[in-house]
């Protein structure tokens, strides 16, 4: 079965997470992604956990499946020349250096498009390619802080808390892939290449939803509210007999159904709770206390079944083991097996976007450092060894 990006040649200069996550998306759906790593390898090859018998980074393996690995010293003239050759017939080049680095290396957009005017050149940096702090390095926690999310996460009486997974990296990877696809669509119509510029700070800022309008419309600075939604009630996490469940009612009709379901019809007669705005303004302490007391009498499974029958959004708080083993995750093939050349069988997340005619798949495992040097650069074994000795490539 064909894949949607079959025949697309992508040169991937990225490392760590945001870039590799974006190019993984392209690779999963058929693109020929050639990872060009520095001589020491992508930094996340050193990030744990590590597979016991081989020492391979499971983190690297998860986000670099379906890719080839080459190595180049881009500070050397020969290394740059070899990259320029790769670029000549490439469709996309992706990089995630901090602002200004590509110009120093002579692999910036202006240089590359002279070699290949049709190329889509995509950058994903902490602060993008423009602005007064574009030169700064950045990791996920910094982007969450400066994008406004850290200050919104946690409880009112705690310090700011970052979102658990690296949402700035992952979100940037998704925006990066979307930007590349939009640029490819534009090129299909016009023949023109272009520069796609993603900023991790921008990405986090774009996810703040009503915190922005709370300020621009009402002048209110949204503060940490724990699990309480800043505009909908009830919408929270509740303790039950054996853990926690989430419940949400997004409109008046659903809230009416909810009150009948939990046997608290008296809430419907209370003027404070007759509109969503009223419920939000008066959620604490009375409305939350009623729901918390009701949940305390049931298990997670019992509450889930009751709310499922009533068509009220509800779900138990799952740990990672429970999530991986959940029948819905399994049915959607969100966990798949990958046969790694040194680590053997690895169990990793599958492809998110399900497509009927051009589905994504994990076709082959993440590469060993420099394993594809000869194939990609057209080298003999002797030529490869010579370039290793010259410090141009590595294995």
CATH H-level superfamily title of the largest domain: Crotonobetainyl-coa:carnitine coa-transferase, domain 1
Number of discrete domains:
2
CATH architecture label of the largest domain: 3-Layer(aba) Sandwich
Number of strands: 11
Order of helices and strands: EHEHEHEHHEHHEHHEEHHHHEHHEEHH
By secondary-structure content and strand pairing, the structural class works out as: alpha/beta
Overall geometric form:
elongated
Distance linking N and C termini: 33 Å
- Identify the CATH class of the largest domain: Alpha Beta
Describe the structure.
The chain is an alpha/beta fold and 395 residues long. It has two domains: 260 residues, Rossmann fold (3-Layer(aba) Sandwich); 89 residues, formyl-coa transferase, domain 3, CATH 3.30.1540.10. It is 38% helix and 15% strand. The strands form three sheets. The protein has a six-stranded parallel beta sheet, with helices on both faces. Helix 6 packs across helix 8 and helix 7 crosses helix 8. The longest helix has 24 residues. The protein is elongated and about 80 Å long. The two termini are 33 Å apart.
């Amino acid at each position: 079965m064909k894949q949607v990006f079959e025949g697309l040649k992508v040169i991937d200069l990225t490392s760590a997470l945001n870039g590799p996550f974006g190019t993984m998306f392209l690779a999963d759906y058929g693109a020929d992604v050639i990872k060009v790593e520095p001589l020491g390898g992508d930094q996340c090859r050193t990030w744990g956990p590590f597979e016991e018998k081989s020492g391979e980074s499971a983190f690297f393996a998860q986000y670099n499946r379906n890719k080839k690995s080459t190595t180049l010293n881009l500070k050397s003239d020969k290394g740059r020349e070899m990259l320029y050759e790769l670029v000549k017939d490439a469709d996309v080049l992706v990089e995630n250096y901090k602002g200004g680095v590509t110009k120093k290396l002579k692999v910036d957009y202006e240089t590359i498009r002279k070699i290949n005017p049709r190329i889509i050149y995509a950058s994903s940096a902490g602060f993008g390619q423009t602005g007064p702090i574009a030169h700064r390095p950045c990791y996920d926690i910094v982007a969450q802080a400066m994008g406004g999310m850290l200050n919104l996460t946690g409880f009112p009486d705690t310090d700011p808390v970052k979102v658990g997974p690296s949402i700035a990296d992952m979100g940037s990877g998704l925006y990066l892939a979307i930007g590349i696809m939009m640029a490819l669509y534009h090129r299909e119509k016009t023949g023109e290449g272009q520069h796609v510029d993603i900023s991790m700070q921008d990405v986090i800022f774009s996810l703040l939803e009503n915190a922005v309008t709370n300020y621009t419309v009402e002048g209110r600075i949204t503060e940490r509210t724990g699990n309480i939604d800043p505009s909908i009630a009830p919408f929270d996490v509740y303790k039950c007999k054996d853990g926690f469940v989430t419940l949400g009612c997004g409109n008046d009709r659903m809230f009416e159904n909810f009150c009948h379901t939990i046997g608290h019809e008296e809430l419907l007669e209370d003027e404070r709770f007759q509109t969503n705005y009223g419920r939000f303004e008066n959620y604490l302490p009375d409305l939350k206390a009623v729901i918390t007391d009701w949940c305390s009498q049931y298990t997670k499974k019992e509450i889930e079944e009751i709310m499922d029958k009533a068509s009220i959004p509800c779900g138990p708080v799952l740990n990672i083991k429970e999530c991986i083993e959940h029948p819905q995750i399994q049915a959607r093939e969100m966990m798949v097996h990958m046969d790694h050349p040194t680590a053997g069988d690895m169990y990793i997340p599958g492809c998110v976007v399900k497509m009927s005619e051009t589905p994504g798949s994990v076709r082959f495992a993440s590469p060993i450092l420099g394993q594809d040097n000869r194939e990609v650069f057209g080298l003999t074994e002797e030529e490869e060894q010579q370039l290793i000795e010259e410090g141009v490539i590595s294995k």
